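Interim report, section 4.2 (structural modelling).
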Amino acid sequence: AQTVTQSQPEMSVQEAETVTLSCTYDTSENNYYLFWYKQPPSRQMILVIRQEAYKQQNATENRFSVNFQKAAKSFSLKISDSQLGDTAMYFCAFTNLNTDKLIFGTGTRLQVFP
Amino acid sequence: DTAVSQTPKYLVTQMGNDKSIKCEQNLGHDTMYWYKQDSKKFLKIMFSYNNKELIINETVPNRFSPKSPDKAHLNLHINSLELGDSAVYFCASSQHALGYTFGSGTRLTVV
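Predicted structure of the assembly:
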């Protein structure tokens, strides 16, 4: 069975600093996709970043980047220059083209302090 | 323009009632989903439909019945509501795992 594990229930960071959120997953598939979603207090699910497993290059989106280690099945999210608006729950998620469903981790609550 | 819209945003109802949540997407995606987020924020898929056809049914009680009149709509009907059904329900759509777009969620409270 495919699983996604986020071992950090809560994290905090000071504004303008860098923080890394951890995610590991388990699958026997070779082709799959990984995502990080942000859920602010408004509860909207917002796609932060997406990584295709066949791409060795780590995805980046402005201040957000990932460290994708396929052999270790690790997919961490780095947030640089943290902003107060980054305060939210962050969910790591996995899917492959066979199942076509997102499997979520349990989430990490990130608090950015001034 | 809202990509995935679901109504209502909030729903408070008594145990035993029947209620529906509606979802519409204007992205032209083939696949739509219902996810449930419990009180601990855990998100789990309930159903998926591809072009009006049921693809995934994840061990959801028979009281939950999805209906897809066309590929742009996926509604969720819940019979005989129970306290444990209280949660946030998200509708989503996707096209070949290229990206999943979520609605803003419906917070269901059963009293």
